[in-house]
């Protein structure tokens, strides 16, 4: 396993699924998605159990509610969901 350091650029760093930005003396957190992310979910009309179909949306909603996002970040995430 090889680890490569990620350096801060323009007061911003992407860490796991978060974008962390320094703004004066506080940190602003936003949700980060790679440019190649497709946000594909299981089709509602597939034969998978409903629990599996809804799991992705529950995860997205829980992440949006649990992270200390500002109002703009929550609106952006809601539109993505």
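Q: What amino acid sequence fits the structure above?
A:
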């Amino acid at each position: 396993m090889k680890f490569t350091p990620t350096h801060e650029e323009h007061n911003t760093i992407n860490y796991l699924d978060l974008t962390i930005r320094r703004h004066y003396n506080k940190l602003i957190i936003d949700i980060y998605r790679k440019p190649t992310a497709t946000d594909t979910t299981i089709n509602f009309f597939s034969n998978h159990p409903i629990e599996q179909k809804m799991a992705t949306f529950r995860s997205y909603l829980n992440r949006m509610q649990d992270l200390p996002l500002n109002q703009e970040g929550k609106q952006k995430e809601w539109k993505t969901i």
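Q: And what stands out in the fold?
A: The beta strands are 12-15, 18-23, 26-31.
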